[in-house]
Design a protein that fits this description.
The protein is mostly helical and 55 residues long. It has one helix at residues 9-54. The protein is rod-shaped and about 80 Å long.
Length: 55
């Protein structure tokens, strides 16, 4: 039968929680950058449409 080292468990849980927080923060950054790219793409499309009207 396996035994669990109870003294190590809280530290392992804290490390896992910290890793999850870091990954969540990174995901939020990527998500924000994605929205910035979409806005830039919309601006480019709008600029192209304006140029077509002028030409």
């Amino acid at each position: 039968m396996k035994t669990l080292d109870v003294q190590v468990l809280p530290k392992a849980i804290d490390q896992t929680l910290e890793q999850l927080k870091q990954q969540s923060d990174e995901f939020a950054k990527v998500k924000n950058k994605k929205h910035v790219i979409y806005r830039l793409e919309d601006d480019v499309i709008e600029a192209e449409e304006r140029l077509e009207k002028i030409s």
